[in-house]
Amino acid sequence: MTLSINSTAPDFVADSTEGQIRFHDWIGDAWCVLFSHPKDFTPVCTTELGVVARMKPEFDRRGVKLIGVSIDPVADHMRWSEDIRTAVGQAPNYPLIGDTNLKVAKLYHLLPEDAGDSAQGRTAADNATARTLFVIGPDKKIKLTISYPMTTGRDFNEVLRAIDSLQLTARHQLATPANWSAGEDVVIVPSVSDDAARERFPNGWKSPVPYLRLVSAPS
Description:
Elements: E1 13-14, E2 21-22, H1 23-27, E3 31-37, H2 43-61, E4 64-70, H3 74-88, E5 96-98, H4 103-107, E6 132-136, E7 142-147, H5 156-172, E8 174-175, E9 186-188, H6 194-200, E10 206-209, E11 212-215
Parallel strand pairs: 3-4, 4-5
Antiparallel strand pairs: 1-2, 3-6, 6-7, 8-9, 9-11, 10-11
Helix pairs in contact: 2-3
């Protein structure tokens, strides 16, 4: 069983590379990306953590906090960070949670309950399902999940695009069509009546079919 969209993101207390955190308190009023990794010193994850560090200003601009979790001790995370700096040119500049007792992985349904209670002796293959990314809103609800196999590096440009869409919906009751990019036309959500839409969008909208109402994106 997995956590679904609109589920409350489970809260927890854990050690990280930036000290102990209580997750919900750490998020505060921000948005959050929590992304999981099977094990330290793995090749694809090494590239991901470095790329996210380089892209952090884009997440900051959107009010999004970044946090990773890997099923190894914090001391290993610190050593791994130097490898990431060497390989990608940027060490993580956001916290990495140590999940040595598998607590966070189980809370987020990344590992089964019978996986044990220790990271010791577990291989990356044992933890292969710890490859999900969660976007969590200020209300602590899960807004989006994306899961990848260990062999496929995540596309964090797509994560930013999805966050732009989620924040547009939160602020303006607008949705985004397939392959949408920031600045392109957007969709008035069905919960907004035509009368209410006329008040909000006095210039009208394009409607190729009655239930699809396209308007210019707000600036």
